[in-house]
Amino acid sequence: MSLSAKIKEISMKITQVYVSIKSKKTPWYAKVVGVTAVTYALSPIDLIPDFIPIIGYLDDLIVLPILIAVTIKLIPKQLWIGFEEEAKHIWKDGKPAKWHYAIPVVLVWIAVIAIIIHIFLH
């Protein structure tokens, strides 16, 4: 499998994990691991910084799939299949169809940056 195909697969699975977090049917322990996976995927802070050539992306290709796999194992199979169908509607032509899901993440990072700037300027 090519790197591009692997990245597309991970992005689809992380979308499924996101959908599973929103579901009331998902067990709480699966939600905890799922929130960790989604947070890690969206966070600009990695275990190994991405600016380090090759090695910087290894944590994304190792840690994230492990978190996704654990989440999948904790969710009943029939539920996961339903989340797969729902996740397909979130992405269209490789782009998020519902881009407004990113707004809370962007607002949190803007707040974090504003706090850091405020601390360093005072």
Structural summary, described in words:
There is one protein chain. The protein starts with a helix and ends with a helix. α1 (3-22) packs across α4 (77-88). The chain is mainly alpha-helical and 122 residues long. The protein has one domain (3-89). It is 70% helix and 3% strand. The chain is globular and about 55 Å long.
Task: Give the gist of this structure.
The protein is mostly helical. It is 70% helix and 3% strand.
Describe the largest sheet.
2 strands, antiparallel
Give the number of helices. 5
Please state the average pLDDT score: 82
Strand order of the largest sheet: 1-2
Number of domains: 1
Approximately how much helix is present in the residues? over 70%
Number of beta strands: 2
Radius of gyration, whole Å: 16 Å
Which parts are unreliable, with pLDDT below 50 for 5 consecutive residues or more? none
The best one-word shape is globular
Order of helices and strands: HHHHEEH
Give the termini separation.
51 Å
Binned strand content: under 5%
**Structural class based on helices, strands and sheet pairing:** mainly alpha
